[in-house]
Amino acid sequence: MMPITHNPTVGLVTDRLQLEPLRPSHAAEMVTVLAASDLYHYTGGTPPTLDDLERRYAAQTAGSPTPGETWHNWIIRVPIEGTVGFGKQPSTLRTPKLPGSSPPTLKEAATHEKPPPR
Q1: Which DSSP symbol is given to 95?
Q2: From first to last of its 118 residues, what are the pLDDT tens digits of the chain?
Q3: Could you tell me the pTM of the whole model?
Q4: How far apart are CA 69 and CA 47, in angstroms?
Q5: Which DSSP string corresponds to 4-62?
């Protein structure tokens, strides 16, 4: 099993993969990665411009406006290939129910966990 190290500046690193915390400065690099029009065949849209990505990454690194929700946005690198993409993982800290209170119904839990529309 490969060791995984975490460095707040670098992110998560293994011998074959790096997850680097997203910064607005990544826009210049990612505009090339996201330039292929084939990427938008099924999802629609067009490749973003450098200005589009700089604005998007600035907003994403500013964090969630929802209290208790944290966004983890990553640049994905394969050291022998360079930058290959991006990913994000929202996470929310929730206050546990008080002892003696009933747990949420499945519908309440499912509704509560849905991320807000973007």
Answers
A1: P
A2: 556 555 555 678 888 888 888 999 999 999 998 998 888 888 899 999 999 999 999 998 888 888 888 888 888 888 777 666 666 665 554 444 455 555 554 444 444 444 445 5
A3: 0.62
A4: 29
A5: -EEETTTEEE-SS-EEEE--GGGHHHHHHHT--GGGGTTT---PPPHHHHHHHHHHHHH
Q: How far apart are CA 92 and CA 102, in angstroms?
A: 21
pLDDT tens-digit readout, 1-22: 556 555 555 678 888 888 888 9
What are the two backbone dihedrals, phi and then psi, of residue 114, each rounded to the nearest 5 degrees? -70, 130
Q: Is the distance from CB of 114 to CB of 53 less than 8 angstroms? A: no
Assign 112 to helix, strand or coil: helix
Q: What separation in angstroms does the CA of 21 have from each of 8, 34, 66, 84, 103?
A: 8, 18, 20, 14, 35
88, with CB counted inside 10 A (0-12, 13-18, 19+), is: exposed
